[in-house]
Amino acid sequence: MSRSLWIILIVIAAAVGLLVLNDGAGSTMGIENYDFSRLVWLGVLVAVVGAGLFRSGRPVSDMARSLGTWAVIILGLIAGYQYRYELQDFASRVSAGLIPGSPLTLGVADGRPTVTLDKGDNGHFEARIMVNGATIRAVVDTGATSTVLTSQDAMAAGFNPATLSYTVPVSTANGMTNAAAVRADQLKLGDIVRKDITVLIAAPGSLGQSLLGMNFIGSLSGFDVRGDRMILRG
After folding, report:
1. Backbone dihedral region for residue 133 (phi beyond 0: left; psi -120 to 50: alpha; all else: beta)
2. What per-residue confidence (pLDDT) applies to 145?
3. Whole-angstrom Cα distance, residue 70 to residue 76?
4. Is the pTM for the entire model greater than 0.85?
5. Rounded-to-integer distance, Cα 36 and Cα 15, Å
6. Angstrom distance (rounded) from CA 92 to CA 106
7. What CA–CA distance (Å, rounded) separates 181 from 148?
């Protein structure tokens, strides 16, 4: 084992020992323990990269460029971590504009998330909901008393339409049909989650698109429509 590696291991061991000894005090050498640990790991990383470059025998100018490149990469990673929530919000806004029905979570107020939906080109509000982990496109239908899945979407969510009993009458755009009632482990719209919720599964071939109905919408603290945007409050 090389001498430089022994030195790095000794530095890490000493830093861990100091952090353990000063755990109750909350700071080490006047620096908060969390910041001290980050400083030590950053120093170790720089030392390892620097040692590798110097051992390579490359010209100083090449090593300087390599160190500069690594510094930019590290700063980029740190910046990405610090602004991860802003980046997630940006990605959500982009996906909401590109993918119809993608919910955009605006934030959390009083422990309740707020989600918005944009009106689709067909004039209806569509939502990409998740039922038992499966992504499903559904039309938001305040006239439907319950959430109704097509047989294809039901299969994606883990239900077997062939084994169900279709005894519940429901009204669709094509008229009256029958559906089967099942319990979904989870129904999710953005950050709004409802567990162990009843959903209906339409008889095969009787429904063109799944519906997000009032059994979910009615469980919200509120919702309203402002122009081409629907705002739902968990």
Report:
1. left
2. 86
3. 10
4. no
5. 9
6. 10
7. 9
